[in-house]
Amino acid sequence: HINVKNEDGVSYLQAMSPVDCIFLDPARRNEHGGKTVAISDCEPDVAELEELLLNKAEQVMVKLSPMLDLSLALKELQHVQEVHIISANNECKELLLILGQASVEEISIHCVNLPTRGTQEEQHFVFTREQEQQSGCNYTNTLGKYLYEPNSSLLKAGAFRSITANYPVRKLHPNSHLYTSDMQIKEFPGRIFQITGHCGLNKKEIKENLADLKKANLTVRNFPATVAELRKRLKLAEGGDTYLFASTLNDGKKILVRCRKE
């Protein structure tokens, strides 16, 4: 039940009969073979074809680069109804926009993380940009027993405040996209860690809390050093079962959080 047409896509679109749905995956390479990200740099330019596409189909699905800024995409395309951000094993893979003829009051943003190994379940989180703007956010100067890192789809979507509106967690800092709680929240859409210790950056605290560590999985979030710089300073090799997060609390204190994965 498949008809293949080896023709210029735009010319065929102009002449074709209306259909229920059109799926587009614009080429993300320029004439020199370099990667492109912006909608206007891809071929064809979906923004230029938007009205024609919606004259030919009730629904249009556009697959775009996961590197594309979502705000820019929503400015360029006028008829977006839904956004789907897909990650696999916590690596953002695809940005899919659903265009439709009917107008919507709020664009729903679907964040999905698909596991490709182990027994981990799919993670889904849905919100709107309006909900994100209106959500209150609980910040904290102290750590609970657990630390949470949202999956890459949520980070890409910018669902930072919505998380605290949907789960009983506290955000470490407006720019530290890490969360904490005293009770474990197993349904949290991201990685969950049990905090086994934390310290400031002075040598005494570091020695007391990290002296036994030879290697660790190191992550930096809102911290004035890169992973490489911090790894060199702490003399830590990569790997092992210990996870170390360098971040900032709401009062501005810089901290190192030692964890094990749940």
Give the fraction of residues assigned to helices.
10-25%
How would you sum up the major sheet?
A: 7 strands, mixed
Span between termini? 47 Å
Strand content: 35-45%
Characterise the protein shown here.
With 262 residues, this protein is of the alpha+beta class. It is 23% helix and 37% strand. It is built from 8 helices and 13 strands. It has helices at residues 9-15, 46-56, 70-76, 129-134, 152-157, 160-166, 203-210, 227-234; strands spanning 19-24, 57-64, 80-88, 91-100, 108-114, 123-128, 146-150, 170-173, 176-181, 190-199, 215-220, 237-248, 254-261. A 7-stranded mixed sheet has the order 8-9-7-10-13-12-11. The protein has a 6-stranded mixed sheet with strand order 1-2-4-3-5-6. The radius of gyration is 22 Å and the shape is elongated. The mean pLDDT is 92.
From the structure above, extract its key features.
7-stranded mixed β-sheet; 8 helices; 262 residues; 6-stranded mixed β-sheet
